[in-house]
Amino acid sequence: MLEIKNLHARIAEDGTEILRGLNLSIAAGEVAAIMGPNGSGKSTLSYVLAGREDYEVTEGEVWYKGENILELDPAERAAKGLFLAFQYPVEIPGVATMQFLKTALNEQKKARGEAELTTPEFMRQVKQAAGELKINPDMLKRPLNVGFSGGEKKRAEILQMALLAPQLCLLDETDSGLDIDALKIVADGVNALRSPERAMVVITHYQRLLDYIVPDTVHVLYRGQVVQTGDKDLARELERNGYADLIEQHAA
């Protein structure tokens, strides 16, 4: 589903290179964990895939479902089934959460040539998805993410993911700031979306998230490249031993 070849990317503002020839392949149905020390390029990878303008791709290709998506803008990528869950979801005062969800869902449907949802149809979908994620309906009446706790913001993003049903989900440190109860709820929501047609990229620093969202593969980034790949046991090994050996091995 996703094939990244020799990807180089830098910060657009100052030219600092972050990704330095990254190669990665993820199949449909696969849950891939991305780990690595701070500054290794984990979040940058998710931003580049989603099309954020802060980053400039200088070399390489990103093939998604047989199409090189680097020339597509973020909205076009989203319409084709990419979804990015942010580490720190932003607050949007004045935009009602329910209106945001309905607009996002119908824009996706319109881009795919599908009929838009009526209000009753939309309400039924939201009610069902919110119930499964244990989201208080009163939360959905508030402006998007305004006054939300860290756990509420992450649940709101997983709710968006459940409604939009993307085919490639990018979860950028979605465990950041969550207590154990919120982590379990968010992980349950993610696991409920696992399917043979959907791939997930789970970016995390810590093994604890991968106890709940068990990955098929674990890829370790260092200095903008994938330097090690394994199964879920690799994450446990990194939790025990840290990155010191890996950094020493690849330092140059």
UniProtKB/TrEMBL annotation:
<dbReference type="Pfam" id="PF00005">
    <property type="entry name" value="ABC_tran"/>
</dbReference>
<dbReference type="InterPro" id="IPR017871">
    <property type="entry name" value="ABC_transporter-like_CS"/>
</dbReference>
<comment type="similarity">
    <text>Belongs to the ABC transporter superfamily. Ycf16 family.</text>
</comment>
<dbReference type="GO" id="GO:0005524">
    <property type="term" value="F:ATP binding"/>
</dbReference>
<keyword id="KW-0067">ATP-binding</keyword>
<feature type="domain" description="ABC transporter">
    <location>
        <begin position="2"/>
        <end position="248"/>
    </location>
</feature>
<dbReference type="InterPro" id="IPR027417">
    <property type="entry name" value="P-loop_NTPase"/>
</dbReference>
<dbReference type="InterPro" id="IPR003439">
    <property type="entry name" value="ABC_transporter-like_ATP-bd"/>
</dbReference>
<dbReference type="InterPro" id="IPR010230">
    <property type="entry name" value="FeS-cluster_ATPase_SufC"/>
</dbReference>
<dbReference type="GO" id="GO:0016887">
    <property type="term" value="F:ATP hydrolysis activity"/>
</dbReference>
<protein>
    <submittedName>
        <fullName>Fe-S cluster assembly ATPase SufC</fullName>
    </submittedName>
</protein>
<dbReference type="InterPro" id="IPR003593">
    <property type="entry name" value="AAA+_ATPase"/>
</dbReference>
<keyword id="KW-0547">Nucleotide-binding</keyword>
